[in-house]
C-alpha cells in the first residue's frame, strides 16, 4: 500500500472531474453542505440515513450497500474518490466501509472539502445524476472491524488507540467540543489505551501529514508494531481517519476500527474504565 | 444517534441546551467589520491541541461546547487566517470575535 494508491490531491481531482471511471462522492452527516455547493459532478452519500441501518445500531447490510451504490450509479470497476467536511472524518469512515464491503479502487481526496474550499476551487449546486448500475458487494471483511468483546480482550494485549481529544480521553468532555456534552455513558477511556488524537495525523488544512511524520507520531506515542491495533473514538468516524493513516498510509498489517467506540463501550455494564490523563 | 458532524451554527442556542451547565464559546469571524461565512474555525486547548472545528454560518457565527479553561480560537478562510484567545471561567455563554485577512 502506498500513499499514491489511496490518496489523491485536490489538483489531481480537479483535473479528473470528467475522467470516465472516476466517481467523486461527498460524504457528510450534514448534507446541506453538498446541496449548497459540491465538487462538480460529485454524488452525495448521507452518513446517517444511507450508511446506517435505520432501526438497529449497525451499518446497512450487504444487500443494502449494493442497492445504495447501484442507485448512486457507482460500478464495481469505478475508481471512487471520497471527500467530505470535518477533515474527511465521514469520508474516511465511508472509505473504510467501501473496503469492508470489498471495493478495491477507492481513494480519499487529501484535505477533503476544507482544502478544496481554502484553495478556492470550483463548487457547483447543480443536481448530479448518474445512470444506475448493478453493484455487487462482498461479505464484510471483519479483518478491519472490531466488536466489543474483542476490544475487552485487547486490554493489555493489543495496541488500543483512542483518537479522541485529550479532554474526551481523560473524561473531562464526553463529546467533541462542537457538540452538547450531556450524554448517557460514563466518561473516560479503555484501560491501557494510548491517546493519539486523530488531529495529530492531519495538517491544519485537513491534508494528512507525511508518512515520515506519521511514523514518528505513532512510534513516539508507543504503538508496538509487532502487535495488532484497534482504533476507537466516540462513534467510529474519527477512528476511521486514524485507521486510514495506520493501515492504508503506513501499511500496518493488522489494524481494526472499533465502530461501536466510546458510545458503546462507555455504556457497557461491568467493563473497566479508566479516567484521567496518562 | 447524533454524530460528530457540525450542527448548524446560529447566534442563539438551541432550545434543548442548558447554558447553565454548558460552557459555550460563541462568536463571529470578521474581515474588518464584515462577517465571514464559510470560515473554518478551530478550537485549540491550552496546550495548543486541536479540540474541535466548525464552519461559520452565512452570518459568520460559530459555537463550541467547551469546558472552563483557556482556549485558542483559530479561523481559516481563503481570504486569510486569524486567531484569538478566550478564558472561560465557568459555565455560561462566552463571547469571542476572530478577525481574518
TrEMBL record, chain A:
Keywords: Repeat, Transferase. It catalyses: thiosulfate + hydrogen cyanide = thiocyanate + sulfite + 2 H(+). Residues 18-125, 154-274 form the Rhodanese domain. It comes from the Bacteria. GO terms for molecular function: thiosulfate-cyanide sulfurtransferase activity. SMART domains: RHOD. The keyword Transferase applies. InterPro entries: Rhodanese-like_dom, Rhodanese-like_dom_sf, Thiosulfate_sulfurtransferase, Thiosulphate_STrfase_CS. This is Sulfurtransferase. It comes from Herbihabitans rhizosphaerae. The lineage of its organism: Bacteria, Bacillati, Actinomycetota, Actinomycetes, Pseudonocardiales.
TrEMBL record, chain B:
Gene3D superfamilies: Immunoglobulins. One of its GO terms (biological process) is carbohydrate metabolic process. InterPro entries: DUF1416, Ig-like_fold. It comes from the Bacteria. This is Uncharacterized protein DUF1416. It comes from Herbihabitans rhizosphaerae.
Amino acid at each position: 500500500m502506498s500513499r499514491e494508491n489511496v490518496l489523491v490531491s485536490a489538483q489531481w481531482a480537479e483535473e479528473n472531474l470528467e475522467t470516465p471511471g472516476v466517481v467523486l462522492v461527498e460524504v457528510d452527516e450534514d448534507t446541506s453542505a453538498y446541496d449548497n455547493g459540491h465538487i462538480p459532478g460529485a454524488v452525495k452519500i448521507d452518513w446517517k440515513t444511507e450508511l446506517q441501518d435505520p432501526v438497529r445500531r449497525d451499518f446497512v447490510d450487504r444487500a443494502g450497500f449494493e442497492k445504495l451504490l447501484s442507485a448512486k450509479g457507482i460500478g464495481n470497476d469505478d475508481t471512487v474518490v471520497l471527500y467530505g467536511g470535518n477533515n474527511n472524518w465521514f469520508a474516511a469512515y465511508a472509505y473504510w466501509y467501501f473496503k469492508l464491503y470489498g471495493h478495491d479502487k477507492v481513494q480519499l481526496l487529501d484535505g477533503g472539502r476544507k482544502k478544496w474550499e481554502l484553495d478556492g476551487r470550483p463548487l457547483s449546486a447543480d443536481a448530479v445524476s448518474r445512470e444506475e448500475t448493478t453493484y455487487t458487494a462482498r461479505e464484510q471483511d471483519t479483518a478491519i472491524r472490531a466488536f466489543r468483546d474483542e476490544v475487552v480482550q485487547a486490554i493489555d494485549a493489543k495496541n488500543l488507540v483512542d483518537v479522541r481529544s485529550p479532554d474526551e480521553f481523560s473524561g473531562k468532555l464526553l463529546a467533541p467540543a462542537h457538540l452538547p456534552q450531556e450524554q448517557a455513558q460514563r466518561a473516560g477511556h479503555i484501560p491501557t489505551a494510548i491517546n493519539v488524537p486523530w488531529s495529530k495525523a492531519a495538517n491544519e488544512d485537513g491534508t494528512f501529514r507525511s508518512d515520515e511524520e506519521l511514523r514518528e507520531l505513532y512510534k513516539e506515542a508507543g504503538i508496538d508494531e509487532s502487535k495488532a491495533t484497534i482504533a476507537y473514538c466516540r462513534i467510529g468516524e474519527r477512528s476511521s481517519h486514524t485507521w486510514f493513516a495506520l493501515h492504508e498510509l503506513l501499511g500496518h498489517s493488522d489494524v481494526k476500527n472499533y465502530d461501536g467506540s466510546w458510545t458503546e463501550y462507555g455504556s457497557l455494564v461491568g467493563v473497566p474504565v479508566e479516567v484521567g490523563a496518562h | 444517534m447524533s454524530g460528530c458532524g457540525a450542527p448548524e451554527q446560529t447566534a442563539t442556542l438551541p432550545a434543548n441546551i442548558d447554558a447553565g451547565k454548558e460552557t459555550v464559546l460563541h462568536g463571529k469571524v470578521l474581515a474588518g467589520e464584515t462577517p465571514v461565512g464559510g470560515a473554518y474555525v478551530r478550537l485549540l486547548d491550552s496546550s495548543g491541541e486541536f479540540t474541535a472545528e466548525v464552519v461559520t454560518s452565512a452570518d459568520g457565527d460559530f459555537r463550541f461546547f467547551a469546558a472552563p479553561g483557556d482556549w485558542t480560537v483559530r479561523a481559516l478562510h481563503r481570504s486569510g487566517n486569524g486567531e484569538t484567545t478566550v478564558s472561560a471561567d465557568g459555565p455560561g455563554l462566552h463571547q469571542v470575535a476572530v478577525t481574518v485577512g
